[in-house]
Fold this protein.
Amino acid sequence: MLATIVAQRRRDIAALKKTRPLAALRAAATPGRPTFAAAVRAAPFALIAECKLASPAKGALCERHTVPDLARLFTAAGAAALSVHTSAPFRGRIEDIAAVRAVSPLPILRKDFIIDEYQLYESRLAGADAVLLIAAILTDGQLARYLALAGSLGLDTLVEVHSLEELQRVQRTAAPIVGINNRDLATFTTDLAATFALLPHTDGRRLIISESGINSGHDARRLKAAGVRGALVGEALVTAADIPARTRELALAPEKEEFPMPDKNGRFGAYGGRYVPETLMPALGELAATYGRLKDDPAFRRELAGYLKDYAGRPTLLYHAANLTAHYGRADIYLKREDLLHTGAHKINNAIGQAILARRMGKKRIVAETGAGQHGVACATVAAYFGLECRVFMGEEDIERQHLNVVRMRLLGSEVVPVASGTGTLKDATSEAMRYWVANVRDTNYIIGSVVGPHPYPMMVRDFQAVIGRELKAQAAAAGLQIKHIVACVGGGSNAMGIFHPFLHDRDIVKTGVEAAGRGLGSGQYAASLVKGRPGVLHGAYSYLLQDDDGQVTPAYSVSAGLDYPGVGPEHAHARDSGLARYVAVTDRAALDALARLARLEGIIAALESAHALAYLEELMPATGPGQAVVVCLSGRGDKDVDTVAKIMGGS
Amino acid sequence: MSALRAKLAATLAAGRKGLIVYLTAGCPDLAATREAARAAFAAGADIVEIGIPFSDPIADGPVIQKAAAEALKGGLKTAAVLDAAGEITAAGPVALMTYINTILQFGPERFVAAAAAKGAAGVIVPDLPLEEAAPLQDICRRHNLDLIKFIAPTSPPERIARICAQAEGFLYCVSTTGVTGVRAVDYSLLAPLIAAARQATAVPVAIGFGIGSPEAAVAAAAHADAVIVGSAVVERLATSGPTAVGQLVAALRRALDGAGERP
């Protein structure tokens, strides 16, 4: 059958050359910037999903969808790249590439029986990012020539092999990605054993993809465990009853996609929910509905991305801390520099997102709570920028220790309302902001600063902060980093959830949240809710909480005002219980030492909050090895803390 | 019929409006709470709500926040409040009001069982909206305790209908968007809200939040079956003692009854 198809292709090309000669194609083709290989490399397991309607062996496979429909489904369900069949026996046409390009940003592999350089120019002109080269139908000379030509045209290549002999031929070329086809070309049956039989013979210098016959998540996991970097799948996807579900399954993203967190009641496992007075329930419902509509709306995403880039200063650097790395002499340490954002901390990511939401909901006033003042400053900033009236509740104790931020908020035109009740810190400021919101819910939007509070806040704030992790993922892929650890401080936990979230289900990367142990975990004076607390309800959500036997919330303590909170976001509670992330605590003293260490070694003054994450390196680094990458979220800069630090450190 | 609803029904049948009084337990101490509760019943309160203090009461204004903080400073325990409540249930129907964390940490089953054993008639949890209420509701049903439902001025009609379908004892209608505490309220604005509730339930409707004087009680009662007075009573107990609470409740009762008598 293969010979018949190839012969037909040869006749097709001869005909094409008459209507549009090779020279014309050559003149029109400009080199592309292919993204296919990078996408395969970046994905933990790259599903290359084939938009295939029929096959010569089986006839029609999918009658319900068009090729662009399939592309849309695959894209939404987590495929890393798309494959488009462009030959007649598969009911494909070269024009399908443009049709798919119009509906999906994913890299496109042109799948065809390529036997003539004419088809490479044609692929480039059609907009493909990559082409499939089949070793079985090409001579060594053709293979080498086509690989070189594809390279010069800016096309990535996937070279397909069926046998050991073909694999050995291909391994004498520069082919960067090799696909092992599990389909027996004589019988057209598939057997995953083909991949496992050839794997021991691969030379370790190329990305290996398995093709056809991958029918379940179990198959995909077996391949991944064996070192295979992805799968090219068509039939198993397009013949599935539930195409998105099968796509998610084979893309190995089932936990994240099949059990979306939170559920419709705002639950992350047992945690979260909405424990608020009835007065607020309709407003939370409206907020969740508006956010639900907007979060995938292209116009909203563009608007948000625009402000994050042009106003906040994203993307932030992934900075290789060479001196700190040398200090420990183990893994490479990278700092995700959220401290370089406008207003000096990650809080602006969320404030911008929620301010845009407030505007879309027609609310003219915003209210916020703040601990260290970073969220307050971020809210005051966006309020000034968008012309919103802003009121920030701040504990009296925090007003004292974070005076600089109080001045900033007032300068930006916001009203700072001192809160004297309770401990005069973030907990009491949050309670007071919620009370104010209850009274003014009709015209006011409450911008919560962390992944805490009633649903939809933990989800919404996480989504706005997840830009940190998404950026990190792209930056790490571009730099070819193998991230082993991600470390972030946890108060309410917004910078931590933001950087963890895109990696939450990647078991190869250890996510560590660092809480404040204050004067020591034995001292009773700490803010380590996940390490020392137990589940309960505070500020509208069920999560870990510092409390006494009767459920009275006990005061938290930390030298860092931003971590000085007895609760924590419910998704962290779920991550803790399910082992998706782990949580530790470091003392004031360790954090202060880490702050000084980074300042002296790297010339960077970190916020006291972020210094907790840095302090954990003391324990972590000896257990790491060269060649690994450890990423620390440097959530904020330390200008606001210099008075506190000076007071404690004195002249030292 | 539940004890709470039966008591209000009897009052309404006599041509009078219901009067519900709230006390924060343990402020200044539990003896004062017991004495004030008995004085309130004697002066004509139909129901007394005993508030179990919580450290972070997000639905409460300054007066009740302060009372709760003082009670907790004195080392007040949930179990002690349940015991104290048990000593006043003979004087009239008692509902226990507290935040959900207090109940979760005591253990919902243990809490409701203890409340029922002490003779309490209902539980009021201001931070437990309908969507989160099911587990506690099941336990309360098994122990024949009413779990009081709230409606607020922000509740849309379809939501009011869903809440009212679950209403028992009485329906707690929050007078304004805001926390507890005495303030001027135009109760006539509640007319459509209460009309919607009446379409959906026959349970008596009580207005709470903001009512601090006999005049305000009369104004609110014109739109409902009962009124709830909290902060004003708590404040009176703190400043003038249990006897003064009795006097305030008597004044509220007189005003409500006077307004009920058509000349």
Residues 254-258 of chain A have pLDDT under 50 and may be disordered. Chain A touches chain B through 36 residues (CB under 8 Å). Residues 2-19 of chain A form the longest helix (18 residues).
